[in-house]
Each structure stands twice: as C-alpha cells, then as structure tokens.
Amino acid sequence: EEEDKLRGLDGGVDDYVVKPFSPREVTARVRALLRRAGVQTAFRVGELHVDLRAREVRLAGARVELSKLEFDLLTTMAQHAGMAWSRERLLERVWGSDFPGTERVVDVHITSLRRKLRDTLDTPRFIETVRGVGYRFREDAN
Predict the structure, then answer these.
(1) I need a labelling partner for 110 at 20 to 30 A (CA). Which of 61, 104, 120, 133 fits?
(2) Cα 100 to Cα 102: distance, rounded to the nearest angstrom
(3) Which domains are assigned to the chain?
(4) Cβ neighbours of residue 81 under 8 Å, at least 6 residues apart?
(5) Pick from 74, 48, 52: which is nearest to 63 by CA?
(6) Distance CA 80, CA 141 (A)
(7) pLDDT tens figures, 8-51
C-alpha cells in the first residue's frame, strides 16, 4: 500500500521495491546505492588490480588465485595502505574474534600471499614486515 511505502521512506528507508520484482532490478538498485554511497568496488595499486565485487585479483593482467582468507587479508590491508597491522588485529578482522587458533596462522597466510603476489622479503613491493608489530601494505606499492 502507498501508506506503507510512505511510512518506510519517512522512517529512513533508502529505497522500496514492490513485489513482484526482477533480480536484475534489485541488482541495479544495489549498484546505484553503492555508487551514491561512494563504496569502493575495485582498486589498483601499481600492477595489482583488485575487484572486490568479483573477488578477483590480477597482477600485471594475470589472474591470481587466492583463497577466501588470502583475499580478505589482502583487501583488509590494501584498503588501509600504510597502516601497521598487528597479527592479533588481523586475526580478529579477517578470521573473527572467535577463531580458536594462534596468531601464527596470520604468518602462514602472509607467506602464501607474498608468494602468489611474487613479493619478496628483501624488497617487498606490496606487503612489508613491521618488526615487533606485524605487517603493513605499502602505500607506495608499485
């Protein structure tokens, strides 16, 4: 009913979809909301391209196969480039606060991620170690 729509919109609802609706319409409306909200759906750092919506990573145009955790770890750090992340904070952010394992699982996934991104410890292009703290995605990654 029109009264329901008006109450919803006046109550803070951003949009209203009437049944029956097509999935294509809902998808288009979500994309429009994300655009208006300025939500980032992809980013590029040097030759690294990350598509958040498709959950796809490309390095110099070649697709990089990442696990769910590797992707989440990469995007968490890359979206906050320059910020030093402790293992504990990464563990909580990526694995969740109820993860029963140790912080060393972060090291294992960082090592795997570095290998897949062809990053090295000597001259890291993307992920560097912050001694005594954890890791940082380089702001000047290239």
Answers:
(1) 61
(2) 7
(3) 2-37 (no CATH), 42-137 (1.10.10.10)
(4) 45, 136, 137, 138, 139, 141
(5) 48
(6) 12
(7) 778 877 777 778 878 888 878 777 776 776 667 788 888 999 99
